[in-house]
Each structure stands twice: as structure tokens, then as C-alpha cells.
Amino acid sequence: MKTERITFLNAQGERLAARLELPGDGRPLAYALFAHCFTCSKDLKAVVNICRALSSRRIAVLRFDFTGLGESEGDFAATTFSSEVTDLVAAAHFLGQEYEAPRLLIGHSLGGAAVLSAAADIPSTTAVVTIAAPFNPDNLRGLLGATTEHIELTGQATVSIGGRDFSIRKALLDDLAAQKPDEVLHRLKVALLVMHSPRDEVVGIDNATRIYQAAHHPKSFISLDPADHLLSDAKDSRYAGEMIATWASRYLVLSDPGMALLS
Asked: What pTM was computed for the model?
């Protein structure tokens, strides 16, 4: 396996930092795009483990930092759920121009909701995977707790998430409330894999049920028990990556049909 450091521009012309995980010989059979969780980064250990498990099965994966996070340019406070979807579309466009358009979209937590929304605007997509994703992006409002009311009243507030402070604006809350997950899932016309742990204390397992029930076939579910929300234990994220590669092999259109993903 090998990792390439790259950057690409978002819709505002800001440079987003990314890593492209490739098989050792640099000859992937398909490309995927990974969306990290809210306020996380492309370098979260679980993200790296999943992407490298996929690259070991000859699926190249682009993992990147959303605007204003990690090594990417931009003001995080000015971002919304819709801007994250736009970042995903920009990442897919970059892959299509420089490498090969992504056929597989993978998203963790709020990133899972984002890939569901972005799929319609990334025509190369043939399969989508959600990991610990909320059914409704507006679920994030509940996770912000009492701060939500303060943001509604004053327009902005600082929120501590994972030991770090982030500025959240009312525009984000308004955008979350405007999302229509039932419509998103109704128009999803590609294969879907829902992955979730029944022990997830951040985004409950009932969200996986609602996503699965609202989506069309072909759809699958894989339990990530006993993982936590962030797949903190390395063996859980590696398992997730291996299962995604196995499942996706049924739905990816390979650049070289003579080679197998599982070889």
C-alpha cells in the first residue's frame, strides 16, 4: 500500500487537504471517496484503518479534510451540512479529472448522511456505505445540547467537542433543519450498505433501522458490535474496512475485469 499527499479546490477556491490510499503497485481496480465525521479529520485512526483495508483489496480511497478542518483551508464556522456535500462533489470531480471517478462513497457519522445526499450529484456512484450515520442530519442539533438554544438566540456560539472548541453558527442549524432524509433515500438508486453498532451511544442504532427501511433494494446491513461510535478499537475499524471491500465487490464496475478485488 502507498499514500499520496494531494490537495484540490472546493467550490470557493479554497484548498482542501487529502490523502489517496493506493494499492502497493499503484493499480487500483476502482476508486472510493471517504467522508469523515463532524469536526473529525481525514487522519482519524479509524478512517485511516478503513481506507487502508480497502486499498489492500485494490480499492483506492480518497480521504480528505472538509473545509476549515484538519489541514484544509477555510473557515469552519462558515460551513454547513450542504457545504460538506458540495465538498464531496468537488472531491469526486477532482478524482474524475486526475484519476478515475469514484464508484464507492463511504461516510462516517454525519459524513454518512453527507454521502447519501451527495450520491445524486456524483453520477459515477454505484454503491454507498454509511457507518454510524444519523437518519436525519438534524440529529446533530440534539448532540449540541443546551448550546443549540444559545446559537438560535445569538446566532453563534463556541461548542466544545472532543476536547476542542468550535464556533457554530445558526446557518448550520437552519441548514440541518432543512434537510429531507426521506426524499434523499427515496431517490438513492444505487446499492447501499448500512453499518452500525448497537452499542453506539452517540448515534443510536434506531438510525440504522430508519435508513435501511427508507432505502430501496439492493441494501444490506452489517452490525459493528461491539464497536463504539468512533470505532476507537483498531480491530473494529479494520473489520469495517474488510467487510466494505467484500460487499462492494458485488457492485463496483472494475477498470480491469480480469483482476479480482479479493486477490
From this structure: 0.95
Q: Percentage of residues in the chain with pLDDT exceeding 70?
A: 96
- Domain of residue 167, residue span: 138-178
Do 244 and 129 lie in a common domain?
yes
Secondary structure element (H or E) that encloses residue 193, with its range = strand 191-196
Cell numbers standing for residue 245: 471491500
* Rounded-to-integer distance, Cα 89 and Cα 71, Å: 19
One domain, residues 57 and 159: no
From the list 71, 75, 77, the residue with the least C-alpha distance to 36 is 71
Residue 201 exposed, middle or buried by CB count within 10 Å (0-12, 13-18, 19+): exposed
Q: Are 8 and 90 in contact (CB under 8 A)?
A: yes
pLDDT of 254 higher than 80: no
Q: Evaluate whether residue 59 is within a structural domain.
A: yes
In the structure, what pLDDT confidence band is assigned to residue 262 with cuts at 50, 70 and 90? low
Would you state the pLDDT for residue 260?
56
Contact present, 125 and 105 (Cβ < 8 Å): yes
Helix (H, G, I), strand (E, B) or coil at 44: coil
Task: Give the other-Cβ count within 10 Å of 95's Cβ.
Answer: 23
Least trusted range by pLDDT, from 57-66, 108-117, 137-146, 223-232: 137-146
DSSP state of 78: G
Task: Give the count of beta carbons closer than 10 Å to the beta carbon of residue 5.
Answer: 9
Give the pairing type, strands 59-64 and 30-35: parallel
Q: What is the pLDDT of residues 1-27, one digit of tens each?
A: 799 999 999 999 999 999 999 999 989
- Check whether residue 167 and residue 187 sit in a common domain: no
Tell whether the torsion through CA atoms of 56, 9, 80 and 210 is positive or negative: negative
